[in-house]
Amino acid sequence: MSADSSKKMRARNFACTHLIWHSGGVTGTPSLRERKKRATREALRAAALRLALERGAENVRVEDIAEAAGVSPRTYNNYFSSREHAIVAAITADRAAHVAAAVAARPAEVGLGDAVVDAVVGSYTASGDDPPGALLMIATSSALRACYVDTVTTIEGPLAEVIVERCRGVGRLTAEALSAGVGAAARVALRHWLHAASAMPSMPGFVVPSGSLPDLVRAALTPLVPALDAIDGPARR
Asked: Domain 24-92, what fold?
């Protein structure tokens, strides 16, 4: 097997492993308990978003979400610390694992900088899959905006792992520092986008423009490309 084929195989294996890990499993075959926990989390996320869109986020109680998902409020608190976290999780679920998987799957000839930027930007480009009104609801609620921005930090751990896997010889400290920089840059872009969206007048049929968010994220991440490529170059030679 050639070195390039071996690296591509490792990337595919990494992607699959981390998608499972992020969802709550630690092996290729999640246990029954892990599958139940995953199903409960997904039910809570779905109920929180549905109720928030129907009633308005401020009119939804934790008890309402728990009842809709068929669990107790105590069980709810084992998964989410607030209603806002559950609502936002319905939109951002599995983003970190997909970003890491996208970076791992890129061929060796694609620089690490481009791979990371494309993966993170792609995770926001796909926001068109969200239910109608979801991003507008987030943009017009300060509590939801804060939670949405905070979710960016979840990409840092999985991204550091894929950098260590791809760039052999690069220390974990360096990988974590660069991943934190990526998370910080994306967070700044999100804050700018949400601030601009929240300042726009609300009107029937108004939809938050999605095209500007990927552009802002790419612009914020681009200055980090040389640093990412600098640790990738020696590993690829």
From this structure: Tetracycline Repressor; domain 2 (1.10.357)
